[in-house]
């Protein structure tokens, strides 16, 4: 394997370009040629979740037209990976051509940590990060893709890192895309619980694999005046 396709996702493109840069750095250090999917922008998940199926289908078509089957497609996002791997089957069920394209690329779609550990069989990437870190597993990554141990395996191999336990870490941060907009009191209460456990952990940095979770948690910590920083896993692995 010499080449991968990188789908940056809309949140990554608009709000977390440093995450995409870090993912490229890690993949290139592993001697892979990284081809960005420049024509793709969004997987369509938000529109799909809100019932706007035609809009979601248009975004899925754009994504599928930009991909080449047979070359791994790596995403620094569990939620977008889940949308493509699991929910495209539902979304595109009435369009035989698009459904065939979705089935063709499905075996080649991997979340970032999943690709490193399960496909490349890599856990140590030469990273160094000398701070205390807690890990928050995102819901789609853990519950829909079944990616549980891979991020911690990668973090455990980082030189100088001090991993601390996050109490009830599998509880949702309350983001959920439009859920946080439509149900702010519930989302806010879930976030408060998450921030309490982060503070109690003593972590200097909170790590997650999804930009949605990072946006939610970072915003809450900032409003609280907390010194805890947030990072995507790719940023930790790119550190030297």
Walkthrough of the structure:
This protein has 240 residues and is α/β, with parallel strands linked by helices. It folds into two domains: 3-119; 132-238, 3-Layer(aba) Sandwich (Rossmann fold). The protein has helices at residues 10-15, 17-29, 45-49, 53-66, 78-91, 96-105, 112-119, 139-144, 150-156, 179-182, 184-201, 211-224, 233-238; strands at 3-6, 33-36, 73-75, 109-111, 132-135, 162-163, 205-208, 229-232. The strands form two sheets. Strands 2-1-3-4 form a four-stranded parallel beta sheet, sandwiched between helices. Strands 6-5-7-8 form a four-stranded parallel beta sheet, sandwiched between helices. It is globular. The mean pLDDT is 96.
List key phrases describing it.
single chain; alpha/beta; Rossmann fold; 2 domains; 4-stranded parallel sheet; 13 helices; 12% strand
Most strands sheet: 4 strands, parallel
Average pLDDT reading: 96
The number of strands is 8
**Shape verdict:** globular
Number of domains: 2
Helix content: 40-55%
Structural class: alpha/beta
Main-sheet strand order equals 2-1-3-4
Residue fraction in strands: 5-15%
- How many helices? The count is 13
Which spans have pLDDT < 50 for at least 5 consecutive residues?
A: none
Q: Radius of gyration over alpha carbons?
A: 17 Å
Note the gap between the termini.
25 Å
| Secondary-structure element series | EHHEHHEHHEHEHHEHHEHEH
